[in-house]
Amino acid sequence: MxxxxxxxxxxxxxxxxxxxxxxxxxxxxxxxxxxxxTLPHGLDVLNRLRDAGAERIFLxxxxxxxxxxxxxxxxxxxxxNVWMMTLHIxxxxxxxxxxxxxxxxxxxxxxxxxxxxxxxxxxxxRVLSDHLGVNRTVEEHMVHLSSLAMEFDLDGVVxxxxxxxxxxxxxxxxxxxxxxxxxxxxTEAHDQVRVGDANSAIEHGADYLVIGRALTGSLDxxxxxxxxxxxxx
Length: 233
Ligand code: C5P
Hints:
Layout: E1 2-8, H1 14-24, E2 28-33, H2 35-41, H3 45-52, E3 56-63, H4 67-79, E4 84-88, H5 93-105, E5 113-117, H6 125-131, H7 138-151, E6 156-158, H8 164-171, E7 176-179, H9 198-204, E8 208-211, H10 213-216, H11 221-228
Helix pairs in contact: 1-3, 4-5, 7-8
The structure holds cytidine-5'-monophosphate.
Cytidine-5'-monophosphate (C5P) binds near residues 158, 190 and 211.
């Protein structure tokens, strides 16, 4: 079982998501879901995925609201034994603290990991500088926000393969790094800009790799994991 791989289930089709879990459950125990599955099916989808074989669920809803609203959202997710969830670091210290306090009030077995999102991979330097008025490079801004996340006790951060080294350097071993945009060398990047391969991501300091289409679109996911160097028994 590979415990570093998180398979992203980016589909509104519950049957398709369940089939993917069934197909991968002997090799991957963690699955990531977002708005596409939870809006049409509600959080009951968590139990359906567990029944199909998902041991751990990463609820990627990227919370960003006033502290009270985010704390309520974290409480609902924690009640349902979500293993990991995301929130935007730009929600600020009060929002982060409210989320952390809520997560910590869950008993140990149900305590979710709270992971901070800094700069979305869909934003580039031009948008950051010209539209959002940020006078730092994307990487500098990610390092800045990731350090803030650690200062206010989040459990880790999301970043692409390109920023792992500098973020790991900045946060040391205080938090986990979750890296999406993982591809086999010389394969389709789809809509991702900052992609990287699994082994160098791990080498540079990623703890978890989010892999979506490369796995869910594979006719032979076992072989794909082997090609990634991620097939373990
Ligand atoms: O199919 P692919 O491997 O590109 O899927 C990557 C997954 O990681 C998607 O679910 C996407 O929403 C998520 N993600 C991302 N970039 C981030 C945060 C999350 O690609 N910065």
